[in-house]
Amino acid sequence: MKNKTTQDIIKALDEKYSASGQDKNMYLEGLLHSKPMNYWDYIHTDALLNLQIQRTNFPDEMVFIGYHQINELIFKMILWELQQLAEVAILKVDFLTDKLMRVSRYFDMLTTSFTIMQDGMDVKQYNQFRHTLAPGSGFQSAQYRKIEFASTELINLIDPRFRETIDRNTPFENAFEHLYWQAAGKDYKSAKKSPLLTSFEKRYKEEFITFMKVYNSKNLWSRYKELSESDQSSKALVKAMRHYDYTVNITWVMGHFKAAKHYILSSSGDGSATGGSKWQKYMHPKYQKRIFFPELWSDIEIETWGHEVEN
């Protein structure tokens, strides 16, 4: 393709702005007064690097804060890809497969990055500064919950003990009360919730329910089911779907689990999470059986989900 001439570019600009009833000359004049763009201005480096604010004087707290902020930035990129899958008018197999592999690579990176946490902080320091986080916890990552909502049918995120009582006619508020992660801090007999859950829901419950409603018919699995049977049978697509499911719900989760185990169950740790959650049963995939696309797995694979990984 040959390079466009100045006249070609001006013509294209004229057509673009005329179509919306605007004067291109106003925008061209604006270029006369605009500043040149620098990397640090575009990335907002100064603002980004001033977000790591420690609560203690322990040096390794900086590692902890920076690492989790990086995670949240990656979660944002994942949600950006899932949003495109949800909103594209006509979903194509190649587009879906490409986006899935992008998201999987993000989670692959997150999984391998746990060594930064596991081997990159002094255990004694961690078990001192972490108490300043209470009752906060990485459990309270709202973006990660949205990734789950955007990936699968809501029923697959319900605590297995209550799935027979939940269906598409169940009010979203009731379904919310039976999501698998409620078990991390809820007594179902008394309905009493831990400060971890209480503060999390106070901040995000309404936002979550709105998000659940929006993605009820636009989640990844729902979009997949819109494809023709032949497209759904694409080996490359099915492989990508299974890879994403396994990566998020076993590989990444176990990476997190092992890092938590390394610190919380260390000789200097007390075995409890900062948010007071029953973290071992909440996190391990063999207990909650978090599976985004159960129809793509065999009965034996579902039955033994998470059993093949070490505790």
Give a verbal description of the structure:
This protein is mostly helical and 311 residues long. The chain has a single domain (73-303), classed as Up-down Bundle (Methane Monooxygenase Hydroxylase, Chain G, domain 1). The protein has 17 helices and two strands. Strands 1-2 form a two-stranded antiparallel sheet. Helix 5 (61-87) runs antiparallel to helix 6 and helix 9 runs parallel beside helix 11. The protein is globular and about 70 Å long.
Which structural class fits the helix and strand makeup? Answer: mainly alpha
| Count of distinct structural domains | 1
The overall pLDDT average reads: 89
Unreliable parts: none
Strand order of the largest sheet: 1-2
Write the element-wise H/E pattern from the N-terminal end onward: HHHHHHHHHHEEHHHHHHH
Which CATH class applies here?
Answer: Mainly Alpha
List how many beta strands DSSP finds: 2
CATH-scheme architecture: Up-down Bundle
Distance between the termini: 56 Å
Shape estimate: globular
Descriptive labels:
mainly alpha; 17 helices; 59% helix; 311 residues; Methane Monooxygenase Hydroxylase, Chain G, domain 1; globular
